[in-house]
Amino acid sequence: MPPSPFLKGYLSLPTWKGLIATIMQRLHFVQPTNLAPVTKLLATKARNALWLQFFVMGFVSMAWAPRIPEIKTANELSDTQFGWC
Fold this sequence. Notes:
This protein has helices at 13-26, 40-64, 68-74, 79-84. The N and C termini lie far apart (66 Å). The chain has a domain at 42-85. The protein contains 4 helices and no strands. The protein is elongated and about 65 Å long. By secondary structure, the chain is mostly helical.
């Protein structure tokens, strides 16, 4: 089957593959080979930091949410005004 006249002038498939590989490398989708492997200690530290972040954010939102009506009435704010604050 002859090539379609609509595709004439476009890049061939191998050229597209090379182009996509270059873009992925530049956008860091492909891991560079010069990075050190992740150690167990580093993975443990990252997991603990993430756990701490979720715990603190949960605690802060748990402490803040029940006080919203009190803060709105103390400052005489409507729902819209409170939303913009």
